[in-house]
């Protein structure tokens, strides 16, 4: 949560992707609520995902026929749970 909240202060439109559903997040309910109050936009990924390192600007923010969705990123912060 700390990484998501800090990043959100630096980049207001920043999405926060998580591979766990809200019910499986290891943060406390208070931490999650505070992050939401700060405007953290949680995007839950429930299927397999992968990072692509090539730049495909025409694909950013669009879905494909195969169900893939691409997001353009200048930086990626990987944060793991304390548990």
Question: What is the count of helical runs?
Answer: 2
Share of helix among residues? 10-25%
Percent strand equals 5-15%
| Widest β-sheet, arrangement of strands | 1-2
The largest sheet is: 2 strands, parallel
Structural class comes to: alpha+beta
State the end-to-end CA separation. Answer: 13 Å
Mean pLDDT: 76
How many beta-strand runs?
2
Chain oligomer state: single chain
Q: How big is the Rg?
A: 14 Å
How would you sum up the global shape?
A: globular
Unreliable spans are none
Order of helices and strands: HEHE
Could you please describe the fold and organization of this structure?
- With 83 residues, this protein is of the alpha+beta class.
- It is built from two helices and two strands, in the order H-E-H-E.
- A two-stranded parallel sheet has the order 1-2.
- The longest helix is centred in the N-terminal third of the chain and has 9 residues, at 2-10.
- The model has no long low-confidence stretch (mean pLDDT 76).
List the topology elements.
Layout: H1 2-10, E1 15-18, H2 29-37, E2 41-44
Parallel strand pairs: 1-2
Question: Can you summarize this structure?
Answer:
Helix content is 22%, strand content 10%. By secondary structure, it is α+β, with helices and mostly antiparallel strands.
Please tag this protein with its features:
two-stranded parallel sheet; 83 residues; 2 helices; 2 strands; globular; single chain; alpha+beta
